[in-house]
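Fill-in record for VOC family protein.
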Amino acid sequence: MKITHLVLLTDQLDTLKVFYSETLQFAVLEENPSSFKVQIGDTILEFNQSTPNSKPFYHFAMNIPRDQFLEAKRWIQSLVTLNKQEESDEVYFKNWDAHALYFTDPAGNIVEFIARNEDQTKQKNSPFNARSVINISEIGIVSTQVKTLARGLNNLGVPNAREGNEFFSPLGDVNGLFILVKKHRVWFFSEKKAVFYPVRLSIKGIGHIHFNEIDQFQYFR
């Protein structure tokens, strides 16, 4: 599952544009007073201005080359402060055979770099920089009915990546994942409780999916 375009909301549009384009150095594709787009590997990340009094935040992950985790960690540490969990600023997921680290952007989004020890389609860039990032590979979707939402996505052709439950369910594959989580579940490497905010995305070979309301989505070819 390849996420080609991910659209999120923010109340800090100008600050995030500076962060993603100048601090992290992702290329700006388009900008206007109410939105901007940056290229992150094979994925376009777009932020749109949120409605007044809304402070959206999300969890999403970026795939990085499996042999560059330490380089990537040194690079990102020079730019941001890493999140910690139990005094550790990185984690190895045995079930996924992957190493990951987390940081929080200026709008409160919980961003993950993950190096999966499976073959990747992009060659190593050395030294690591923004152009080394492969794609956006995960987006968290908050739900009160995780199993029901998972079945709906299964019906679109999105498979279960692992066995899920009523609190957590990953769908897709190592190239792209929906991370379905129960509302108010605390995000990993964060103290934030999961809250629903709208998400729109395009998936290669599947189409466009809009999560405009909690526990519901619209599908377009």
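KEY FINDING: Residues 119 and 197 are 33 Å apart (CA to CA).
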